Amino acid sequence: MSTATATRTSTRAIREPAISRGTAMLIMAVFTVYFLLPLWWLLVASSKDTGDILTTNPLLFSDFRLFENVAALFTYRDGIYLRWLGNSLLYAGVGGAIATILAAMAGYALAKYRFPGRELVFNVVLGGVLVPATALALPLFLLFSEVQLTNTIWAVLLPSIVSPFGVYLARIFAAGAVPDELLEASRLDGAGEVRTFFTVSIRLMTPALVTMFLFQFVAIWNNFFLPLIMLRSEEFFPVVYGLYGWNNQLNQLPELRGLVLIGALLSVIPLIITFLLLQRFWRNGLGAGALK
Fold first, then answer.
1. Residue 63 pLDDT
2. What is the largest CA-CA distance in the chain?
3. Which residues have CB under 8 Å from 55's CB, separation 6+?
4. Which is nearest to 90 in space by CA: 136, 137, 156, 134?
5. Of the candidates 82, 46, 79, 81, which has an alpha carbon nearest to the alpha carbon of residue 65?
6. How far apart, in whole angstroms, are the C-alpha atoms of residue 169 and residue 151?
7. Do residues 183 and 112 lie in contact, with contact meaning Cβ atoms separated by under 8 Å?
8. Is there a contact between 265 and 43 (Cβ–Cβ < 8 Å)?
9. CA–CA separation, 272 vs 275, rounded Å?
10. What sections of the chain are H helices per DSSP?
11. Rounded to two decimals, what is the model's pTM?
12. At residue 238, does pLDDT exceed 50?
């Protein structure tokens, strides 16, 4: 092969990756703008007076009143929004944590223990993954009505601690990330099954646990239909359902428009903070796997 031919081949090989990278960056930039534009609009609208929301450019700031709007939201009706926000943190935080632990234990047991009916149990769990949550809302309401638990915190919290997808993910991850030899070594050292799980296995399953918690946290935080049929008293409302109630009153109370917007903006912040705090566990888990 001549020098000129080799040079043309090398130039073409360099140009093609550059074009591929440019195309990929363009696609990612378009989707980034697509996903961030509504959030930008929400931030801009939350900083405006109620009268400016519909009369000014929706993507440009005008009279910046963000902090005044936040203060008005927190003081409206004796701070009912803060109560809703606390309820959402309770439902999503406690429900997500308990659901993660239960799913991790169930998935670990299905992956590492041999017992009759194991595959049947796993298939039932897979069936639970395929059933939409809205289809279970009415049966849950009837069950909770029988035990007089509707319109209570338990009506939202108890269904939130069950995560069939978490069980499925935990089994798949535990089967590959927790070596059987390590469990045998732990048993030879005298550790019981519970101690082995909480001191050895659960550390190796950290990336899966974080993923399960984030999925469950977001699902509970955004859950709307279950509180809709279970709750009647405002003091038990999560923030999503509370803002929905305010939004339905806009025709009678137009001043609620600004409160709904600033409330929606603040309701996103806990999700962002949770993701930023937990993403390091993904990096640590991937790094540990690479070192193996």
1. 82
2. 86
3. none
4. 156
5. 46
6. 32
7. yes
8. yes
9. 5
10. 3-46, 50-53, 66-75, 80-89, 95-112, 118-130, 133-146, 154-160, 164-177, 180-188, 193-196, 202-204, 206-221, 225-230, 239-247, 256-291
11. 0.84
12. yes
Residue range 73-95: average pLDDT? 93
Q: What's the rounded Cα separation, in Å, for the pair 221 and 88?
A: 6
What is the DSSP annotation of 93-118? Answer: IIHHHHHHHHHHHHHHHHHH---TTH
Give how far the C-alpha of residue 241 lies from the chain's centroid of Cα atoms, to the nearest Å: 17
Residues 181 and 187: their CA atoms lie apart, in Å, by 10
DSSP letter (8 states) at residue 248? T
Distance CA 137, CA 140 (A): 5
**CA 238 – CA 261 distance, rounded (Å):** 16
DSSP secondary structure string, 9-38? Answer: HHHHHHHHHHHHHHHHHHHHHHHHHHHHHH
Predicted local distance difference test score (pLDDT) of residue 289: 44
Record the tokens describing residue 51, joined without a space: 């009268």
Q: Which residue has the tokens 């550059």?
A: 18
Whose CA is closest to 242, among 76, 74, 47, 85? Answer: 85
Residue 231 to residue 226: CA distance in whole angstroms: 8
For residue 237, what are its two tokens? 């409302």
pLDDT at 75: 92
Give the amino acid at 47.
S
Do residues 174 and 205 make contact, with C-beta atoms less than 8 angstroms apart? Answer: yes
